[in-house]
Amino acid sequence: MSKTTIAIIAAVSAATGAGLTAAMYSTRSEKKIQAAHSSTSVSATSTTSVPAPIPGPLSLSAKDIIPPVDPAGLFQYGFPGPIADLATRPALVSSFDRRLRNPSWVVEHITAASLASPDGDRKHSVFLEDPSVPEKFRGKLKDYFRSGYDRGHQVPAADAKWSQAAMNDTFFLTNMCPQVGEGFNRDYWAHFEDFCRRLTQKYPSVRIVTGPLYLPKRDQADGKWRVSYEVIGNPPNIAVPTHFYKVIFAEDGTTTGPVAVGAFVLPNAAIPNQKPITDFEVPVEAVERASGLEFATKLPVQRRKRLCADTVCALVIREYADRQKAFLKPEEGEKKEKVPGVPTRTSPRNANL
């Protein structure tokens, strides 16, 4: 095959299609005619030219097609979302879900030094609606009133004692979810939060992300899986999570050292204090699948360690609920007795009134 033929075929393959194909056939025909004139004996068919094919329509790439519609034109009136209201505060960073009126996640960072500072006192803090969230999407204080659920901190107030302003940050409702009180928020969950704080005795830096989950449950009647959760408020406003997660990153204080990672999913229900916390340990990927979030995409696998293999994962049971009952407002005409060895605190932990 000649160089000219190769060049023509390349040109045909590259772009021009049927038009150049016709030119190629035409070129061959001219050569045949010239050969016929120079020959002493020419057959009748040797001088017949090959008819050029009719070029078909050129194929256009998707980018060359001008669409007759403009879906993005709707955005001139506003972008529908979903929009995550991101709040960056000294004590925490939170992402708020407007549909469920709960945070999707709340991030905190604790160290031994931050926990040792006594400058914040929860008796000076009050629960607040978050003005950074548009009013129509905001969780309201009245939604919790007589709901039967606690305003459950995702970042606990006890983790932000290093300043009063930091502690106040933890009382915005964008850091709250409805939590079962007795047996969970005031008991097992509180012990779990204490476990996280005790990790700073071994690890110089502990980072925690906490949030709600809405997990499916198999229907006993038909065997099908369904997601079902209560909604509190009047009108119904705030979703009650079925579960809560914590993903913990325990660091050695360097930017390149190993990181002990632990993920836990707990039901929003009363849990016996005797139940091991390791019963609720799950792979990080399980939390990611359930939440639609990603937590460790930039942490190389070679730097990861399993938290409960690197340290003992066990709760220390402290009777928070009994202490809170001691601080409840006594009935009228009844003198409140001070409980020996228990510091005075005027507000019970995350009460729902």
Descriptive overview:
The chain contains 9 helices and 14 strands. The strands form 4 sheets. Strands 1, 2, 3, 6, 11, 12, 13 and 14 form an 8-stranded mixed sheet that branches. Helices cover 25% and strands 19% of the residues. It is globular, with a radius of gyration of 35 Å. The protein has 353 residues and is α+β, with helices and mostly antiparallel strands.
Amino- and carboxy-terminal Cα gap: 91 Å
Q: Structural class, from secondary structure content?
A: alpha+beta
How many strand segments?
Answer: 14
State the helicity in percent bands.
10-25%
Brief summary:
The protein is of the alpha+beta class and 353 residues long.
List the helices and strands and how they pair.
Elements: H1 3-16, H2 18-38, E1 84-88, E2 93-97, E3 102-110, H3 112-116, H4 141-144, E4 150-153, H5 164-169, E5 176-179, H6 181-198, E6 205-213, E7 217-218, E8 225-226, E9 231-232, E10 238-239, E11 243-251, E12 259-267, E13 281-282, H7 284-291, E14 304-306, H8 307-310, H9 320-327
Parallel strand pairs: 12-14
Antiparallel strand pairs: 1-2, 2-3, 3-6, 4-5, 6-11, 7-8, 9-10, 11-12, 12-13
